[in-house]
Design goal:
154 residues, mainly alpha, 434 Repressor (Amino-terminal Domain), 7 helices
Amino acid sequence: MPADDLASLISRVVEAKAEYDVRLLAQQLGTNYRSLMYWMRGERHIPAHLLPQMCVLLNNYEALDFLESQAGRVAFKLPKLDVNLGKELIAVSNLIREVGEALESVGETLADGVVEDKELQTTIPKLEAVIRECASLKYLLEELSAQRKKKKSR
């Protein structure tokens, strides 16, 4: 798949879901089969408002990740807010441990002043996991604060 070809990526993701009926996907997106096929072949651009729904239906977010990377951004899934405080404390504890591991890995990678491919393969996933967890924790804290404010105003 060419790095700049969203249609090829979408096509690959849809085809990888062999159990998923393409006609059903078109119906769930509120479009017709022919339009979906045009989008998958790259003959027409997929409407932007349908892409998130397609990703959710297919349970695959590669297309959104691709667009985010084109814009120089990183996407992450927002946490569900139906969690209790005990679980949140465990999540914060895990985050602190992950940050430590990621920083240790970065330190080892930079120690000799040379960044090798093998080091990148180890370090980058750890850093990405920390970024996701931090963003997720930020969202959670903002939502908990908003919920508290709502309760106070009642």
